[in-house]
Amino acid sequence: MIELIRQPLVIRPNPTRVLLRPFLPPPSSPRTLRILSRILALSEEEVAAQLDEVLRGFCDRHQKLRAIFIDRYDLISPILPSDRPLSENRRQLIGAYFTNEYSLESAALFNPSIVPAPNQDGVPEGAVRFYLSLRATGEGHISSITFRSGLAWANGSVELSPASKFVSEPRPIPNASYQRDLFRRKLAELGQDNTTSRKILGTLEDTFTLDQLRAAVSAHNRQFPQQEFAITGERMILLARSNYDVAFDPDGDISERIIFPFSPSESNGIEDARITRFVAEDGSVTYFATYTAYDGRVILPQLLETRDFVHFATHTLNGPAVQNKGMALFPKKINGRYAMLSRQDNENIHIMFSDQLHFWHESHVIVRPREPWEFVQLGNCGPPVETARGWLVLTHGVGPMRKYCIGAILLDLADPCRVIGRLSQPLIKPEGEEREGYVPNVVYTCGSLLHNRRLIIPYALSDSATTFASLAIDDLLEAMLESGS
Question: Which residue, 161, 178, 220, 254, has fewest beta-carbon neighbours within 10 Å?
Answer without folding.
Answer: 161
